[in-house]
Structure formats: C-alpha cells, structure tokens
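Much of the work behind modern protein science is quiet bookkeeping, done one molecule at a time. The protein below has been through that process, and both of its lines are reproduced in full.


***
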Amino acid sequence: MQNSQMRGQRPGKWKRRLAIVLVTLPLYTACSASWLKFSGQVRDSDWRTASREPAGLAPDAATTPEAVVQVYSARAVRWRGYFGVHTWIAVKPEGAAQYTVHEINGHRLRRSGSALVTSQRAADGYWFGNRPELLGELRGGTAAAVIERIEAAVAAYPYSATYRIWPGPNSNTFTAFVLREAPERRVDLPPTAIGKDYLGIMPVGKLPSGTGGQISLLGAAGVAVGLEEGLEINVLGLTFGVDPGSLALKLPLVGRLGPRE
C-alpha cells in the first residue's frame, strides 16, 4: 500500500519542479535582460550607424614598439547581446604600426564563403555600439613569440566555412581554438561566450587557458575544470560555474559576478 502511494506522489513532485523551472527561467531571463539594458552593456542601436570607435584599451601602436597580443569580448549585436558575447584577438608584432584583428563574422560567410575575417580595424573598437572588455594581454618578448603561433592557429582553424550561433562553431569557438595554441596569457573566456566549448566531434580537449581540461558534447553539454576557469557546467550551451580563485560566480546571460583576477 505504501509503495503504491509513493509511486502516486512522484509525478506530483516532478510537476511541481517543472512548474518552478517554467516560472523561474522566464523571470531570470527578463531580469537579466533588464539589468544588461540598464547597465548599458547592450545597446539596441542600428548596426549600420553604431559606434566602432576605439575604447581606449589598446596601447597606441604608433608609440608602442614592443609586440602586443590582446583578447577582447563585447556583447553581440541586437537581441543576441542579451544572451552572449562576440570575442576576437588582436596582435601587433614588434615594430608594427598597426594592429591586426582576427575574428569570425557570420555575415561575411554569406558573401565570401568564409566567416574568418582578418583586418586592421581598431583592436579595441566598440562592437557595433557595445563596449569591449579586455580579457587578457601579453607584451614584449613573450607576445612576440606567441604571435607566430597565433597566426598559424588562425590559418589552421577548421570551421571557417561554417557558422552557427548555437552551439557553435562561431566567433567564440574560433577564439577558444586559437587560445589553446597560445595559452601563455591563461585567458578565461566569459561564461557568455556561447560556442567556446564546441570541440567538434572530439569529446575531450584542453581549456583555452591551458590550465585544465573539458568534456563537451558538440558544445551543447559538458563539464570543464581548470585553475583559471574554476568549475563550469555547460547545459544546452549555457554556462553555470564558480571560480574559487577569485570568488566569482558564472551565470548565463549575466556573465561573471565577481572580480576577474
């Protein structure tokens, strides 16, 4: 008699849990989107007229003879910005008068057959109105040694003819791929960098920071553990995690809560 009563209670418990999830997720999404809008991290400006001006985060190439490597992120364009960021890598060899920016742009794929873009745009330029964040930097001799490997990794990127917003490959897949070949800066990509965990058909790989490893099912589910990243759990492309080293939480949409270092 007791077993039959317990079996009858289980469906009720699952229904209550499902109801909580169905109420919590839209509420969390609405609150997160409101906060991102209020804080100015996401701007709904027309991409054709949105700012691409430098944010003042990159040293002036004309007065900086040493080599420089920088990694940036900025909220994506329009509605995508409420869910994730766009990342890119900027390099300046020793003595160079300008930066070279490597990134993936899905719109270019339709026009040229390749989403890989290499340009001399401002290294720290606003991403269509959204201010960039400097994730990591190398200068001097270390940067000079890394740039050659970065250029080789850019040329070897295997998904330049493919672009998917979710779960990848996309701009964040590209940045993660290149950083795995040059982990000296130990960059911790934001939890909002959807696509960073896409490893293709390989279920196991090292983290972009080079300080740990991850298991990933086509970027849609997985677990990552590293000294730089802490613990991250990927659920349908959304990252939940904790970084004990800096006492920070990692959440979908909102991103990192707490100090970066």
